[in-house]
Design brief:
heterodimer; A: seven-stranded parallel sheet; B: mainly alpha; about 65% helix; about 0% strand; globular; binds guanosine-5'-triphosphate; binds magnesium ion
Chain lengths: ~240, ~220
């Protein structure tokens, strides 16, 4: 898709239901609305709850928050047929030209849902400590390969018997050096880590150094001495019947 | 240039729900109908009603629009005739939004189409379908069948999300509706004049479209 180099940075925010996607977007708006021109697109599953929550949070002009219906296919709308979302992002960009960043919240889905790189330039995947300490170890494309993994609600750790630091260690172990932020809206240092990450993404977008990456449906893996690769996508697809190591 | 693909294959391409045009966001007013109380046993009637009314208007509009495009006539008159026969603002807005999604794709599939320039972002879906069908080399009858078939399948696939039922039953509804799609296509295929587009409204469907547009609870865009 030919894009103008000056168009906004499109940031996807996804992760399971209730992990704090809308809250994170509200937080980013609160922290950065004075510094950056922002827009938000929500993918509501059934109600317009997310868009309404964000509008009522009063952190952004309500008209800069738009919602897309997904016909009970939240996964499709961010991955295989991104048309409705792309049109909404473009509408926002046209109505409030120029925008610096458009944040797109996915409909709360399962651990496998990630954004198509044709829709967003970079993506944040959220899990939370309340979902259990083992979620990070379960992996999945978002946890292992989203541009940023956020382990949210660290303030709840003591109440749910989960050690947030251990979750970060577990998550980092499967992320091959990609960043992980342990976030709580009550922890200003963690909020700063998040906004700094976003500013850096925007800077690389503007210099043309940000290449959208697909977290993908399949995890790369290696067959002993062969280089690692993935299966089932395009030309890489091949049949094999041996055990993976 | 290589020989273009035969039009039956291009018709299949355009009729495929997997085409990236946000089709999955649409229920063709089945969602507000079910909210109102329409049950599983009435969906086949709902499909038949659409084919006699709103879908007939859309199919006729598409056929007349394609005639205008191919004859070098102004499509503005066709747009006006369609709008006059589509009294629901919500349905007009949905049509234009779906047209935009389709137009994006047509720009990629057939960028050389001379008609993209004359059908801007405000075009209705019927008119943009006419642009696609023209590039695909479809006959007017094929285009009318496409409009009818797509409408039936939109209702059918939305029904699978909205009403719990056996998907094979839904395929049976589609099969049963094909005779009406065929009859619709036969009726509208010869039309060339905007004034000949039937004015066949369905006040209840229009009312559902309007109520759906303002509800805060919905799965489908329309
Ligand atoms: N304690 C605590 N609660 C949080 C934090 N962030 C979000 N929450 C709470 O988590 C709940 C869910 O947050 P949302 O932001 O609505 O989550 P979401 O991922 O957008 O949810 P869906 O859109 O429904 O999938 C709300 O009750 C938030 O107040 C946090 O840092 N700490
Ligand atoms: Mg939310």
């Amino acid at each position: 898709m030919p894009d103008s180099p000056t168009r906004s940075l499109r940031v996807g925010v996804c992760g399971p239901v209730g992990t704090g996607k809308s809250s994170l977007i509200a937080l980013v708006c609160r922290e950065l609305a004075a510094e950056l021109r922002l827009g938000v697109v929500t993918n509501d599953i059934y109600t317009d709850e997310d868009a309404r929550f964000l509008r009522s949070a009063g952190v952004l002009d309500p008209d800069r928050i738009r919602s897309v219906e997904t016909g009970a296919c939240p996964h499709t709308a961010i991955r295989d047929d991104i048309t409705a979302n792309l049109m909404m992002v473009e509408d926002l960009e046209a109505d409030f030209d120029p925008l610096d960043v458009v944040l797109v919240e996915s409909g709360g889905d399962n651990l496998t849902a990630t954004f198509s790189p044709a829709l967003v330039d970079t993506q944040i995947f959220l899990i939370d400590v309340a979902g259990g300490g083992d979620v990070a170890r379960k992996g999945g494309p978002g946890i292992t390969r989203a541009d940023l993994l956020v382990v949210n609600k660290t303030d709840l750790g003591p109440h749910v018997g989960v050690d947030p630091d251990q979750m970060v260690v577990d998550a980092s172990a499967v992320r091959d050096g990609r960043p992980v932020i342990a976030l709580s809206r009550t922890d200003p240092a963690s909020v700063t880590a998040l906004t700094d990450w976003l500013r850096r993404q925007l800077a690389s977008h503007r210099t043309g150094d940000l290449t959208p990456a697909d977290p993908g449906p399949m995890a790369p893996h290696s067959h002993g001495d062969e280089p690692s690769h993935t299966h089932g996508q395009g030309d890489d697809a091949h049949h094999h019947d041996h055990a993976h190591v | 240039m290589d020989r273009p693909p035969p039009s039956p294959l291009l018709l299949m391409l355009l009729a495929d729900a997997r085409l990236p045009t946000a089709g999955h966001t649409q229920s063709a007013q089945l969602e507000p109908a079910t909210v109102w109380g329409l049950g599983v046993s009435e969906v086949a009637d709902f499909i038949a009603l659409r084919l006699r009314t709103v879908t007939r208007v859309e199919a006729a509009t598409a056929v007349v629009a394609m005639h205008h495009l191919r004859a070098g006539l102004d499509v503005a008159e066709v747009e006006a005739a369609w709008a006059a026969r589509t009294p629901s603002p919500a349905m007009r807005a949905t049509s234009r939004q779906m047209a935009r999604a389709l137009r994006r794709l047509v720009c990629r599939l057939w960028p050389e189409s001379p008609h993209l320039a004359v059908t801007g972002p405000g075009a209705s879906r019927a008119v943009v379908l006419a642009v696609a069908a023209d590039s695909a080399g479809l006959a007017p009858r094929d285009l009318a069948m496409l409009v009818g078939y797509d409408d039936v399948q939109t209702v059918a696939s939305a029904a699978l999300k909205l009403l719990p039922l056996d998907p094979a039953d839904v395929a049976c509804w589609v099969l049963d509706a094909l005779a009406a799609v065929d009859a619709l296509a036969t009726e509208v295929a010869p039309l060339t004049l905007p004034s000949a587009i039937p004015a066949a409204g369905a006040p209840q469907i229009e009312a559902w479209a309007e109520s759906h547009a303002v509800t805060s609870r919905r799965l489908f865009n329309a």
